[in-house]
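Supplementary material to the annual report.
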Amino acid sequence: MGATRLIATVVLSLLVFLSGSSATQKKKTQGLPRQPCNRMVFYFHDILYNGQNAENATSAIVGAPAWGNRTILAGQNHFGNMVVFDDPITWDNDLHSNHVGRAQGFYLYDRKDYFTAWLGFSAFFNSTQHRGTITFAGADPLNKTRDISVIGGTGDFFMARGIATLMTDAVEGEVYFRLRVDTKLFVLVTIDHPAFSLL
Ligand SMILES: *[C@@H]1O[C@H](CO)[C@@H](O)[C@H](O)[C@H]1NC(C)=O
Ligand SMILES: *[C@@H]1O[C@H](CO)[C@@H](O)[C@H](O)[C@H]1NC(C)=O
Ligand SMILES: *[C@@H]1O[C@H](CO)[C@@H](O)[C@H](O)[C@H]1NC(C)=O
Ligand SMILES: *[C@@H]1O[C@H](CO)[C@@H](O)[C@H](O)[C@H]1NC(C)=O
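Predicted assembly:
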């Protein structure tokens, strides 16, 4: 009987302790830090296949609405088109600079009355400086700047979380565009590279 009471007391005080500590824990970790820990800016270059540039194209229309085709983006703000891409990444805005990684994923146009897209891709890095992926996903309203989520990372970017501010840096007809990706991570990643700064 005494032993049972002792165990009950221990369990009870443990519960009180745990609930107390989880309450303080909650207070301490409420929300993410307001300031990012890392920043990294890169560019990627998309050359869309248009029936004539098979040699250089880095992306292709893989889905089109019934009133369109897979060679030319459909009318009505390209609604219903889906494009798959494997685009080179550079640190600066020059397509002919060193390709330091690949942006691999897709975008789809998801509004008829307004020009907007949904974008999902992984930035795949495989160099002596860093190896790993950062995965981005989110609505891309194609405004001057827009934020998408950084939803994860692997390798050197293990557990990456944050946001990326996208800016369309150049557009050439419906064949070429260049995106500037300003990646801000709220989980500390330590990589020794000038393009990747600790904040
Ligand atoms: C592919 O790119 C190269 C170098 O930029 C250029 O010389 C060539 O004309 C391009 N080819 C096509 C089919 O666009
Ligand atoms: C694809 O659609 C465009 C107009 O949206 C049209 O100009 C072109 O001829 C079509 N191409 C094919 C192969 O059907
Ligand atoms: C990454 O780079 C290494 C060394 O250059 C190479 O051996 C390996 O095949 C590359 N991996 C991929 C998936 O490209
Ligand atoms: C995006 O641009 C549109 C049209 O220019 C504007 O109406 C809208 O408020 C902008 N959205 C954001 C989030 O800035």
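Residues 124 and 184 are 17 Å apart (CA to CA).
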